[in-house]
Every structure is written in C-alpha cells, then in structure tokens.
From TrEMBL:
It comes from Desulfosarcina alkanivorans. Pfam families: ABC_tran. SMART domains: AAA (SM00382). This is Polar amino acid ABC transporter ATP-binding protein. Coiled coil: none annotated.
Length: 240
C-alpha cells in the first residue's frame, strides 16, 4: 500500500529524511517512534504530499506520489489523517464536521453523508454526542470525532501523528481503543506514537527513527525486548 524507495527530503539545507526504504503491506499497522525532531511527522506527511520529497520513489496504492504531475486529490481521498490537534470546525456539530469532506470531495449527497457520518460516530462510541459542538466535547471525544471524520472518506490508509499526545491521561485509552478496533478490522495504518503498550499489542512492525534515518525496523516484541542499536536502547530507556 505504501512504498518508500530511497526517499530523501530536505527543508532548505536541513536533510530531514535520509535514504528511507519502507514497505507497508495492506492491513499492516506500522508504529513509528523516535526522539523529537527525528523526522517522524515529516515521514508520514510525505505520504499524502503535505510535504514534497526531493529524491526517491514514494508509491501509495499504486499511485506515484513523487511524480509532480500526479493529481493528489484522488490519493488524498483514500488517506485519512489524524493529527495531535483535532482541527475540528468549532461552529459545526460532530456530525457536520464528519460530513464536509464526503460531500465536498466525494460529491456524496447530504443524506447519504449523514447516514455515513452517524454510522462512523457510533463506531467510535459517540452515539450520544452526534449533535454536540467541539466545545461541548472532551479532548478524547474530539479526537474520536476526528477519527470518524477520517473514516467517512472510507479511506484505504489511516495515518496518525501522535493522536493521543495532547490528551489528558484518562482519555488516551478511549482513543487507542478505537485505533485497536481499526487495526483488528484490517485497516492499513501508520501511527506515530510513544504509546508502547499500543505498539506491542497491535503493531506488525515498529520503525525507530533518529536524525532522519530509519535506525531499526522490527516486530514490536523484538524491538522492545532486544533493540539492536545503542540509539534504540537509549531511546527505549528514555520513554519506558
Ligand atoms: P518529529 O515529528 O520526529 O518530531 P519532524 O518531522 O517534525 O520531527 O521534524 C524533523 C526536522 O525537520 C526537525 O529538525 C524540524 O525542526 C524540521 N522541520 C519540521 N518541519 C519543518 C518545516 N516546515 N520547515 C523547516 N524545518 C522543519
Ligand atoms: Mg512530530
């Protein structure tokens, strides 16, 4: 579903992604971890070309994202993106927030979009909050609306960039539970997170990045119990 081949990216003079090779198969859950500034956000933002790459090949669901001529609208429609900050429209209810993209991008009619929006809000456990505004929702609930909004586009891939790091501790699990459910249902996911319990349970592989490079890539049990590099060992000590 996602293939990085020798991908390099710079911000000006700053070389932020260095020779990235990574293949993500359909249904895989890849957790990306590493110190702050190591390039994790940049790595996943390249997948829907929120950031362009300068070198290498990046193919997503058979579409060449590295090719400047390709129309990204179609690629992006198939990729759900959930950020640390939920970015909901404050003047719209949960349901209204979930149906904008299906109506605007997928040209779905409003009734159908609303039916889908309700279904997805129920799926993330918010059947009681469908007509609430973001200000009436907790952080965990807002993040679940953001996930429902992504799911309404019926994506093939879901990307998560530290989806729980802005949440109070007691709300982290309700969001991770929704993500666990998606993983069980076979969604292809890349998740930047330091929630190592989540990684151990659902990740098919863990990617450890440092200074723009993939330093380690292994099944979670191997990475957590037996990191191969000093940087990996040091990182794990710092977060556990
Ligand atoms: P992470 O998500 O692992 O913390 P990022 O991908 O956000 O790392 O950042 C990688 C490096 O790129 C950091 O040094 C960061 O300061 C730099 N960076 C991130 N975004 C930009 C940008 N838009 N312009 C210039 N430098 C950036
Ligand atoms: Mg980041």
């Amino acid at each position: 579903m996602i293939s990085f081949k020798n991908v390099n990216k710079w911000y000006g003079d700053l070389h932020v992604l260095k020779n990235i090779d990574l293949e993500v198969a359909e249904g895989e859950v890849v957790v990306v971890c590493g110190p702050s500034g190591s390039g994790k956000s940049t790595l996943i933002r390249c997948i829907n070309r929120l950031e362009p790459i300068q070198e290498g090949e990046l193919v997503v669901d058979s579409m060449a994202v590295h090719d400047k001529k390709i129309n990204m609208t179609k690629v992006r429609a198939d990729i759900g993106f959930v950020f640390q900050s939920f970015n909901l429209y404050p003047h719209m209810t949960a349901l209204q927030n979930t149906i904008i993209a299906p109506v605007k991008v997928r040209k779905m009619n409003k009734d159908e979009a609303e039916r889908l929006g309700r279904e997805m809000l129920v799926r993330v456990g918010l059947e009681e909050r469908i007509d609430h505004y973001p200000a009436q929702l907790s952080g965990g609930q807002q993040q679940r609306v953001a996930i429902a909004r992504g799911l309404c586009m019926q994506p093939k891939i879901m990307l998560f960039d530290e989806p729980t790091s802005a949440l109070d501790p007691e709300m982290i699990n309700e969001v991770l539970d929704v993500m666990r459910g998606l993983a069980r249902e076979g969604m292809t996911m890349m998740v930047v997170t330091h929630e190592m319990g989540f990684a151990r349970e659902v990740a098919s592989r863990v990617v450890f990045m440092d200074e723009g490079q993939i330093i380690e890539m292994a099944p979670p049990d191997d990475f957590f119990t037996n990191p191969q590099t000093d940087r990996g060992k040091f990182f794990l000590k710092s977060i556990l």
